[in-house]
Amino acid sequence: MTANRTRGKRLVESIRAEMADLGCKPTSTEEELLRVAASLADRLEELEKLIKRDGLLITNAKGDLRPNPACVEARATATTLSRTLGSIYIGDSASAPKKDARKQRAARRRWDRDHGTE
User: Based on the structure, what is the number of domains in the chain?
Assistant: First the structure.
């Protein structure tokens, strides 16, 4: 039965279990992020299989060795997965750290000043 569970499903199950242990449920935004994370994890797993099968370098039509395009895609997918997971707050979302309003105003003033929109 566990053979049917993809890497993405296992990832989401572990995050949900961690949230449940803390007595929390994902918000609707976090639900979507979990769906995206599962998809990315599954895609990364497929890319890793391609890399394992074909190797880090492939030979093009001219006979030159080139980096396997799956390596580049795997790196981009891993980066996106990391950012997606970083957006999921494990804990009570209502008590998640909020942005400091004073710092937000200062950043907005700097942006306006630097970009001539004052």
Answer: 1
Q: Which domain holds residue 65?
A: 2-94
Q: Catalogue the E-assigned strands of 1-118.
A: 57-59, 65-67
Global pTM value = 0.72
In a domain, 54, yes or no: yes
Length of the chain: 118
Instruction: Name the phi and psi angles at 66, rounded to 5.
Output: -135, 155
Band of the pLDDT at 2, cuts 50, 70, 90? low
Residues 64, 73: Cα–Cα separation, whole Å:
20
- Beta carbons within 10 angstroms of residue 53's beta carbon: 9
R_g of the chain computed on alpha carbons: 21
